[in-house]
Design a protein that fits this description.
Blueprint lengths: L15 E12 L5 E13 L8 E3 L8 E5 L13 E7 L1 E5 L5 E4 L4 E4 L8 E5 L4 E7 L4
Parallel strand pairs: 1-8
Antiparallel strand pairs: 1-2, 2-3, 4-10, 5-8, 5-10, 6-7, 6-9
Amino acid sequence: MRFPQKRAKFSEGAQVNGIKSYTKIVTMPDGGSGFQDAELALTDQIVAEGVPAFFVAGLGSGQVIFLRSDGFDSEPHPAPRKQWVLMLKGTIEVEVSDGSRRRFGPGDLILAADTTGHGHVTTAIGAPPFEGLFVPAPDQ
C-alpha cells in the first residue's frame, strides 16, 4: 500500500521556533555541584522526504549508552564525562551539594557537566526498571 504524499508545512533552513528546557548539573566555584536551568533552541527541519518537518536540535554526541537498572542509590560522585542523560522509564532524584533536589522522569533531559568536585547523588524513586540514554557531550 502506498501512503498519500503530503506537503511539509515547514521549509528547510527555517528559523528557530521552539525551545526544549533542560537541567544542567554543574561544578560550582567551591567544588560542590549545583543546578542550572537551560534551553535548547529547536528548529523545524525536514528529516525524510514526504514526512512533515520535526523540531530538532543537535546534541553533538559520540557513542550512546543505554542504561537499565532495577534500582540504585549512589554515593556522591562527579559525572564520568560531560554527558546528556535522557530519562526513558522510571524516575530518579538528583541531589546537589547545597541539598537541593530535583526529580526527573520520562522525557526529561539533563546535562551532567559536574565532572570535577564533590559531584551529585542519584537515587531511584518508585518502581523499577529505570531506563535512560547517556550521550557523551562535546566539551565547549
